[in-house]
Design brief:
This protein has 470 residues and is an alpha/beta fold. It folds into 2 domains: 58-72 and 324-467, Aspartate Aminotransferase, domain 1 (Alpha-Beta Complex), CATH 3.90.1150; 78-320, Aspartate Aminotransferase, domain 2 (3-Layer(aba) Sandwich), CATH 3.40.640. It has 12 helices and 21 strands. The strands form 6 sheets. The protein has an 8-stranded mixed β-sheet with strand order 6-13-12-11-10-7-8-9, with helices on both faces. The chain has a 4-stranded antiparallel β-sheet with strand order 14-15-18-17. Strands 19-20-21 form a 3-stranded antiparallel β-sheet. Helix 3 packs antiparallel against helix 10, helix 4 runs parallel beside helix 10 and helix 5 (130-142) crosses helix 6. It starts with a strand and ends with a strand. The structure holds pyridoxal-5'-phosphate. Pyridoxal-5'-phosphate binds next to helix 5.
Length: 470
């Protein structure tokens, strides 16, 4: 149906009698929710600001990414794949599960957590869509609008990302590089006030690659207990510790402090894309009361449960994965880490902090030693434009002056000199890449930390160039 309308002319007069369809005077206006727009991923915010144009002559080497599957060399083992195949082919896992997870899957996870010394049963487990979802639910269950939550610095940027929508403030407590990134316990305690709702704890650490000793864990728990604060323990790198270190689940060390242990398959089982994580509610003295438990269960309804195919596979994954799978992965990452550490340590101006687990190493940049670079962000940019090597700047982790290297990269065997390369080597893993780190002194004072990568007969190089005065 058409209406006779008057159309306003450009000159402001109105032309009568022109035939027109309805004029809708209301404009489209869809505003983004302020909370959505205010949600920031610190990595994106910082990285998007950088000028990252790789050297076209050199293959990009992303030392930035904590996804061990990217290089193609860390693969889930046969037992894990078989478990998922079985789950899929059975046809039994196509429907919804209870929002907090299938009972048999929760039981399997509870048993697995118990093997780390936690005292939990199936009703203490909430299955989530990855560990980040576990953290989201844990924080949402505890954070009262306007409260503050303590988080490590340097630390995983997701904690900050979650704070906007959940309406809590982050207060950072420092980790001490000179003490293997242990928590500065005095500083931690000084950050607590009446508005503090919980402490986020991360061990082994991303981005530090550190692993806490049992003594340090107990000292930390004492502070939580004294201040009557629950802990959200991000232990997604559980057990990814190098030989000589031991992982202690936080909740195994206290029967007093209520702890939401957050973990999942992502890192230890090397399947980040499978999106399967969990919360284990550790609350032996019932300090959470009913509310936190009820809140977590209610929140799990928001996505009506996590992926059921993987839930169907969980009991077999947790039971059947051979120890050797984990051991080989750890050896491999540890070799990478130690080689990188050794090589970088001798470079004046670079101070790598020796990692003890997880996939990462932080390297301090004494920027005064690098007159070619204005600051550490400039150094990161230059590494990309000169060498096509990308490390994340410490700013992404609230820690300027450092870069983070991801170490879970392809590296068939860790020979760091030519002569070793022809040794007989075990062929247990189907890896095609040999990489090694080398350092040259050139032109007297020009030092090149060079990381050679040999890949199918070709040699790729990447490194840090630095002019420095000795
Ligand atoms: C990778 C990572 C996570 C997220 O794990 P997903 O299971 O992929 O969600 C959580 N915490 C830390 C410290 C991580 O490094």
């Amino acid at each position: 149906m058409e209406y006779q309308t008057s159309i306003p002319m450009m000159n402001g007069h109105t032309e009568p009698n022109s035939k027109q369809t309805t004029i809708v005077t209301k404009e489209w206006s869809i505003n983004g929710s302020p909370k959505a727009l205010g949600t920031i991923n610190p990595i994106r915010r910082i990285v998007d600001e950088l000028n990252l144009t790789p050297n076209p002559e050199k293959v990009m080497i992303p030392l930035s990414i904590g996804d061990p599957t990217l290089s193609g060399d860390f693969k889930p083992c046969k037992e894990i794949i078989d478990a998922v195949k079985c789950s899929l082919e059975s046809g039994s896992f196509n429907g919804y599960s209870p929002a907090s997870g299938r009972e048999d899957a929760r039981q399997a996870i509870a048993d697995y957590c118990s093997s780390y010394g936690m005292t939990v049963n199936s009703k203490d487990i909430i299955i989530t869509s990855g560990c980040s979802h576990a953290l989201d639910l844990a924080l949402a269950a505890i954070a009262i609008p306007g409260c503050n939550i303590l988080a490590p610095r340097p630390g995983f940027p997701l904690y900050k990302t979650l704070s906007t929508l959940l309406d809590f403030n982050i207060r950072y407590y420092d980790l001490l590089p000179e003490n293997g990134w242990q928590i500065d316990l005095k500083h931690l305690e000084s950050q607590i006030d009446d508005n503090t709702a919980a402490i986020i704890y991360n061990n082994p650490s991303n981005p530090c690659g550190s692993v806490f000793s049992r003594k340090h864990i107990i000292d930390f728990l004492e502070i939580a207990e004294r201040n009557r604060l629950p802990v959200i323990a991000d232990e997604i790198y559980e057990d990814l510790v190098f030989p000589g270190n031991q992982f202690y689940a936080l909740a195994s060390q206290s029967s007093e402090v209520p702890i939401l242990h957050c973990s999942g398959l992502t890192k230890k089982f090397m399947v980040p894309g499978w999106r399967l994580g969990w919360i284990a509610i550790n609350d032996r003295k019932n300090r959470f009361g009913n509310e936190i438990r009820a809140g977590l269960n209610a929140l799990s309804q928001r996505i009506i449960g996590s992926n059921t195919i993987i839930q169907g596979a969980i009991p077999a994954i947790l039971k059947n994965t051979p120890k050797s799978f984990f051991e080989e992965n750890i050896d491999y990452i540890c070799n990478n880490a130690m080689m990188a550490y050794r090589r970088l340590k001798v470079v004046p101006g670079l101070i790598p902090i020796k990692p003890a687990g997880a996939f990462y190493m932080m390297v301090k940049i004494e920027i005064d030693r690098f007159p070619d670079f204005r600051n550490d962000l400039h150094l990161v940019e230059s590494l990309v434009s000169d060498e096509s090597v990308f490390c994340l700047p410490g700013n992404c982790f609230e820690y300027p002056g450092y870069v983070r290297l991801a170490l879970a990269l392809s590296n068939e065997m860790n020979y760091d000199n030519e002569s070793q390369r022809n040794d007989n080597r075990p062929n247990d893993y189907n890896r095609t890449t040999v990489k090694h780190f080398e350092i040259f002194t050139q032109d007297g004072d020009r030092l090149l930390v060079n990381i050679h990568q040999h890949h199918r007969g070709k040699i790729f190089e990447f490194g840090l160039y630095a002019n420095f005065s000795v």
